[in-house]
Write a structure and sequence with these properties.
mainly alpha; ABC transporter involved in vitamin B12 uptake, BtuC; 2 domains; globular
């Protein structure tokens, strides 16, 4: 039985830490409430400010209070920099692009910090006492941090309610269009809000520096918790909206509850109903697709010296991840921006693996069970979201929290899952086992994973990306279930090919963001978009890894994250989608000139 004193001690220390996390959540809440964009990389700004505190105290000998003030200034400057360089160019972009731009910044900051300072943990060494009250030990550092965090939150409240600029921030948050008509400049308010939010991140960094060591992936540890606090506490609450806090994303279109611009996003991709099969003709596009598929089918038999296995390995990864990306795009096309598909991927992979390892259930059956369990889980998450019309950024935050919960559960059940070390599939008795779906010859997985790409290439010329005239609300749960089922199936295929599963590569925010990155980079509203985006991202990451190797650890991922941010800002329709749009406009101009 657990000692009650131990429980009380854990509760008190947790409450004290919660004060600092609440400060972080308020900063994120403030930015989202005013600018209407979720900064996925917000806690990584805290990581940079913590490094500033460490170097000022441990290297330059500054007193901790002065380094803390400097951290607040660093945070404010970082907030302004992020707003000017990344947020301003995407203010009018689709919500998924806004989320991914800051998500790309997350990869960039983590990787760049790894390149500069390695993954070593660095601590500010302060001799602070530990208080003892009735046998309960309380960290004095956490007590100080809690008090300062409460004072900072009170100061933020007074700033928003008693100052002119604070009143302007609240007014813009409630109705930015009306404030613009009255002569106020919302963009200037956005800049001030970003500075204030960044300053709060800097203060939180100073308070966390006396409790924890800093490392490049500090944001990965505290970021999901901060987002979950925002979801559970309710976003925008600090700004006292008189309307329902969900109303900004609740515009009704014929009662379907989707964003009012959904149809505009789909317009270019909607095509007339397909012709009768007897009227279908072989177009140049289909001929090119067939030629490409023939080349891919023959590729495993082309002599490549010692490169054949490596090329097959990379190509199989592209096919598997493009399958998963295509599953995500089913929801993305309907405005359901999920950042929690890592949960579906992890559930599918781990369920099939556990059923095989512990019960000897063949993956042919275990995969179906895994898909069924994942669909049930997806419906449990999707129903309340659909019932209460949680859309846009709110839906993204909910799914982000769900994905992180699944990752933590996988780590916690280490007796079954292997925890953070992962789990290896029990090997089959032979190198080629149909029952266990384990083959030493990579060509088996190559052709199996190539099937979906083949269907896409053939169907691209005829399949519409959206169906106008259908009442979308009726299909929300169905679309979510189908997307989750296909993602889980992709997880099963991944587990069978790699024969190893790990929570960091199959669950959580990191893998979810990589899935969405690939889809948006290729083009969400075209069937071949996920394949093109996945091929580009995997090829880019492999090329950078080979170029830099182990000489410049973190540099490859730094360039990868930077390029992702640039692509999101300057090619919002994706590479394949932009190319299709350019070709379509060219044909329109040629037709007009001919007429």
């Amino acid at each position: 039985m657990i000692d009650p004193i131990f429980l009380a001690e854990a509760a008190i220390n947790g409450l004290l830490l919660g004060g600092v996390l609440a400060l972080l959540a308020l900063g994120l809440n403030l930015i989202f409430g005013v600018i209407d964009i979720v900064w996925i990389a917000y806690v990584d700004l805290v990581m940079l400010a913590m490094y500033a505190v460490y170097f000022l105290v441990m290297v330059y000998g500054w007193p901790i209070w002065l380094a803390g003030l400097a951290a607040i200034g660093v945070g404010a400057l970082l907030g302004i920099g992020v707003h000017v360089l990344i947020i301003s160019p995407i203010l009018g972009s689709a919500p998924v692009n806004q989320l991914l731009a800051t998500g790309g910044l997350l990869f960039f900051l983590q990787s760049f910090a790894t390149f500069l300072w390695t993954t070593d943990h660095r601590s500010v060494r302060l001799a602070l006492p530990v208080l003892e009250v009735a046998g309960i030990f309380v960290s004095f550092a956490r007590l100080i941090a809690f008090v300062i965090a409460i004072l900072a939150m009170i100061g933020l409240y007074l700033f928003l309610t008693r100052t002119y600029i604070g009143t302007a921030i609240r007014a813009v948050a409630q109705d930015r269009e009306a404030m613009a008509l009255m002569g106020a400049d919302p963009r200037r308010v956005y800049l001030v809000t970003s500075a204030v939010g960044g300053a709060m991140a800097g203060l939180a960094a100073a308070l966390l520096s006396i409790q924890y060591s800093v490392h490049p992936y500090f944001g990965a540890a505290f970021g999901p918790i901060t987002f979950m606090i925002c979801v559970l506490g309710g976003v925008r609450g600090l700004l006292h909206h008189e309307r329902d806090h969900l109303d900004r994303r609740r515009h009704l279109v014929d009662g379907d509850g989707l964003r009012d611009r959904l149809r505009a996003l789909h317009r270019d991709d909607v095509r007339p109903p397909g012709r009768h099969p007897d009227e279908t003709r072989m177009t140049p596009g289909r001929l090119a697709a067939l030629a490409l598929l023939a080349a891919l089918a023959a590729a495993p038999f082309v002599p490549m010296a010692g490169m054949r296995q490596y090329v097959l390995h990379v190509t199989i990864q592209i096919f598997i991840w493009s399958f998963i990306g295509g599953a995500w795009s089913l929801m993305g096309r309907f405005g359901l921006v999920s950042l929690g598909h890592g949960a579906f991927l992890g559930l599918g992979a781990y369920a099939a693996t556990l059923l095989w390892n512990f019960y000897g259930l063949t993956p042919w059956v275990g995969g179906l069970v895994a898909v069924a369990l994942t669909v049930g889980f997806a419906l449990v998450v999707a129903y309340p979201c659909s019932r209460f019309r949680i859309l846009g950024h709110y839906f993204a935050l909910v799914t982000l929290a769900v994905g992180e919960v699944v990752r933590l559960l996988i780590i916690a059940e280490r007796d079954w899952t292997g925890g953070s070390l992962g789990l290896t599939l029990r090997p089959a008795r032979t190198d080629a086992s149909l029952l266990a779906i384990q083959y030493a010859d990579k060509r088996v997985f190559y052709y199996a994973s190539m099937a979906r790409a083949a269907m896409e290439a053939i169907g691209e010329d005829e399949t519409a990306a959206a169906s106008v005239g259908i009442h979308v609300t009726r299909f929300k749960l169905g679309i979510t279930a189908l997307s989750a089922a296909l993602t889980a199936l992709g997880g099963v295929l991944y587990a069978q090919y790699f024969t190893y599963v790990n929570p960091d590569t199959l669950a959580g925010i990191g893998v979810s963001l990589r899935i969405v990155f690939a889809v948006v980079l290729g083009g969400m509203y075209s069937l071949l978009g996920p394949t093109v985006g996945t091929a580009l991202t995997i090829a880019l990451s492999e090329y950078l890894r080979v170029i830099f190797g182990v000489k410049f650890i973190g540099m490859a991922e730094t360039i990868y994250g930077l390029l992702l941010v640039l692509f999101i800002i300057f090619l919002p329709s994706g590479i394949y989608g932009s190319a299709r749009g350019l070709l379509r406009r060219r044909r329109t101009l040629e037709a007009s000139a001919t007429a």
